[in-house]
Amino acid sequence: MNRQVLTVGGEGAYPTIGAALAQAQPGATISVHSGRYEENLVVDRMVSLVAEGDVEIVAREGSVLVANAEAVQLRGFTLTGQDDKLVAVDVVRGEAALDGCRVTGASWATLLARLQGSLALRGCAVTSTAGAGIVVASASQSTIEDTEISGTASSGVVVAEVGSVVLRRCAVRQPKGNGVCVNGEAVAVVEQCEITGAEKPAMVVEQQGRATITGLTVRDSANVDLYLTSEGRVSVVDSRFLSAPMQAVHVAASAAPMLRECVFAGAERNAVQVTGNASPRFVDCTFEDSPVTILADGEATPNFERATVRGATQTGVLVTGAATVRIAGLRLAGHGIVLSGQSRLDVMDASVETGRGAAFEVTESSWLTGTDLHVRGTGFRITGTAELQDCEIADEVVVAPGATLTASRCRVRDGISADDGANVTLTECEGDGATSAEPEALPPAEPSVSEASGEVLDGPLGELESLVGLAGVKKEVTGLINLIRMSQMRERMGLPMPPMSRHLVFAGPPGTGKTTVARLYGTVLAELGILSKGHMVEVARQDLVGQYIGSTAIKTTEVVEKAIGGVLFIDEAYTLSAGSGGSGPDFGQEAIDALMKIMEDQRDSLVVIVAGYSEQMDVFLESNPGLASRFTRTIEFPNYSVDELVTITLGLTRKHYYELTDDAMTALREYFERVPKNSTFGNGRVARKLFEAMVNNQASRLALQPPSKDSELNRLTAEDLRAELANLPAAAQAAVSVGTDPAAAVGAADSVHRLRELVGQKTVREHAERLLVRLGGLKHGRQPLGQEANVVLSGERGSGRAEFARLYARGLAELGLVGVGQLVRRSVAEDLMPRWPGQAEHLVRTALDDASGGVLVLDLDGDWESTVHTSGHEVLEALAEAVGRRPADPVVVLTGEPRRVRTLAGLVPSLRDRFPAVWELGEYTVDELGEIAVRLLVRGGHEVPDDVRDALAHELAAAPERTVHAAHELARTLSATAASRTLAAADLRGVRPPDVEPLALGQGLASVG
Fold first, then answer.
1. What residues have CB less than 8 Å from 518, skipping those under 6 apart?
2. pLDDT in tens, 360-401
3. Highest-confidence range of 318-327, 541-550, 896-905, by mean pLDDT?
4. 667: pLDDT confidence band, cut at 50, 70 and 90?
5. Using a CB cutoff of 8 Å and minimum separation of 24, what contacts does 763-766 make?
6. Is residue 135 a contact partner of residue 156, using CB atoms and an 8 Å limit?
7. Quick check: 368 and 349 in contact, CB under 8 A?
């Protein structure tokens, strides 16, 4: 059926639009020729009106358009309402869609959506000489896109009563009232809009109104930029509020909005005022260039997370009245913080640098609680109450008569000056006049997962927490799960998802619970809806690798398909990239390639966890360029401690209704203290085998001496452990704690033994060991690590930087100097380069958050500019600031080529303060490279005679570069082409064709030795 088309204007056409409407059928199109039409349109059926040329519809009295139909569309019209009482466009039912229209009104509003009506404006211009531009009071959602509302006599957009509107890419210019006002029980979504020159508060959400605001820019207001008093849900994200003559944002009444990644700048009074009973939350926001940047008064309870405050001309943060403010993560430069009245401020992880005036003034009956503060300025002035913990203060702390100061583990450079009548209590503090004879307090225990999250856990997370030991693993897995939860919340709010890989590397010795944690991880992901099933499929090399060409890809695909919707757990994954050490082809690499393709194809329905020994897993990740990019998070599973092994064994005895006598407990502890804990130590498996042996020994003992009581059947004694103890080395030394003897603990650490066994680079190995001892000394003295643990590791590509960084990180974890044994690798060029101004700080913070509690290895190599005013320079400045704000959380290791490292240190001098240790890897000798190649071949199962060793050294001497990577590539190539387990010099002929220059080997990072 053909759609009806009617024409208005011109020969043979309808004379008026109203006449055409009267004859139009539902669904008709009315084409209006150029001209001025004075009439009132009432549309009661679904039609489309299209302007052919310049068409103006004018209503001297009444509305220009009343829409009372399922849908009406106008395209390209100029609508002018001259009635001073009725709106120009009145939509009472259905949707009125205006595309490319200009609408002018002379009454209290130009466009009105009410009852069951809604507006859909695209590319329009709206103005009003007597009232508001657009008023939405209907619960049917209106959508206004790419539209300019300008010169209105009152507010630009009003969303009232139960109205609902979406504003996208709109501009409100020079309104005499508010730019956008949301009140009643209305709902507004504001995206990428701009409000300029509003004479009253520019963006207002009040009463019970709700709003989700993203990408809003407000500038040149005559009043307040953002005014929030609503009790409804309000979120403001990635928005800028600039140059307000009063306040950039005013939060009052009982409002509790969320403001994230916003900038409040140039306000002539306050960047932020929080008053009344308001409890807003500010996350990752910047407040700058105002006399009093942040003001909290009344009974307000605002929360600030990772706030940047700078450029205040009077006071950076003023807390007064009965306000209670919490700040977690503060970078303040300029004027300091003042507390007065009965206010309270809890601030942690703060860097405060002031030029003049006190950094903190605690006056009257106010109360300050400060944790992990780094203060440079003119110190503290306390006439109220202050509690300080783990703080570094580069000036004097003055305590007035009647004031109270309680400080623990603080370092005050110029000491504490306490007047007569001051109450001062110091514990483990340093500085001139800041010593204390207080007894040392025990260090706080590591919080459990439930304590850290503040909730009682059940289900898979509860089972994870119930596992013995693994505190770092629990923290890392729980943190990743929380990150996934937060990403889901952001997605529901329409916010961009942070970059995140759910695939994991579980590195560590056997028997440490890797399989159990992988199973629980899959179950949690299923509960969160990330995976459809959450089951786990455990495989090893033999399950993936075939025996003939082409069979591996088929076999791998079949196995992976069983894991779709769940977790694929590959144990000893490094065997896929290792040479067989004998003759014949090795199809492990084919399995890796097939796995990479399936991971990409099924990235939303499959999680892969690869597990194995730490050192071998690093080699595995280097075997394929795509592996490192897909597995960006490594969780280290350390050996169980003696206490944890005893607890595991006790659990087994209780599970099987046995009990241990006192002498059995003593023997059990002795066993675990003496048993050798090398790289293949079985941990939980050893505990289980020991329990089984005890049960067998008890059975043999009772068979020879029948029990006199039934209870003896359930009792295990020291006699049942005698045989196992007799098989242990007699002189094994008990583990040494870094908290009691740092040097001995470092010397006994497995990671340090591995470090000592590396080939070459003696100076760097000694530097690393000495630094671990120094850090252990800080822990022994219960002092913070600060920036002391951060390292710059420079060396040419392929010189073994990754291996040194890995062993250093492992040493920090093994010695308990970092909370979590995770190692996260990032690249400046690939992961931190911003796409827009200001993004660098967010990317750097995300990288540090990913590695929190562990070690972040940051690669400086790559093709990126680092000169002043470039994106690279922005990254370096953001890195220096972020590392300074959160010392040792994580420890950061920078790796790069020497020339790049020297250049960057000169461009950003503060990096030198953040990274006091610089280790430079030198060139390897030919003999050292030959030994590295031989070690790799032996590890693959080959026997290497002396003549082959000489031939390898000769080949490496002729290579264009002398790097560890070159030695590894030569060894791997030789292993792949060798005809037997025992190598012969003739096998080297297969490495390169005859009469060709020695093999040119590429660059890259590799393990050393």
1. 504, 506, 536, 538, 567, 569, 609, 611
2. 999 989 999 999 898 887 778 999 999 999 888 888 889 999
3. 318-327
4. confident
5. 763/922, 764/793, 764/804, 764/919, 764/920, 764/921
6. no
7. no
H-type helices in 541-683, by residue range? 541-544, 551-563, 588-601, 614-622, 625-630, 642-655, 662-674
Instruction: List, in order, residues 6 or more apart from 387 with CB less than 8 Å away.
Output: 367, 368, 369, 370, 405, 406, 407
Q: Give Dmax over CA atoms of the chain in angstroms.
A: 123
Per-residue pLDDT, averaged over 354-358, amounts to 75
pLDDT, residue 582, reads: 33
- Write the DSSP assignment of 956-1000 as a string of letters: HHTSS---HHHHHHHHHHHHHH-SSSB--GGGGGGTS-TTSPSPP
Which SS3 state, helix, strand or coil, does residue 603 take? Answer: coil
How far is residue 969's CA from residue 977's CA, in Å, rounded to a whole number? Answer: 12
Helix 964-977, helix 946-957: angle, nearest 10: 130
Beta carbons within 8 Å of 196's beta carbon, 6+ residues apart: 171, 172, 173, 174, 218, 219, 220
d(CA 544, CA 557) in angstroms, rounded, equals 8
Residue 622 three-state SS:
helix
| 538 beta partners | 569
Query: Tell me, what's the pLDDT at 165?
Result: 96
Q: Which of 635, 867, 900 has its CA nearest to residue 792? A: 900
Report yes or no: 779 and 788 within 8 Å, Cβ to Cβ.
Answer: no
| Secondary structure (3-state) at 147 | coil
> What whole-number distance in Å separates Cα of residue 551 and Cα of residue 546?
5
DSSP string for 207-274:
TT-EEEEES-EEES-SS-SEEE--SS-EEEES-EEE--SSEEEEE-TT---EEES-EEE--SSEEEEE
* 961-983 per-residue burial string, b: 16 or more CB within 10 A, e: under 16: bbbbbbbbbbbbbbbeebeeeeb
Provide the token pair at 936: 């790799």
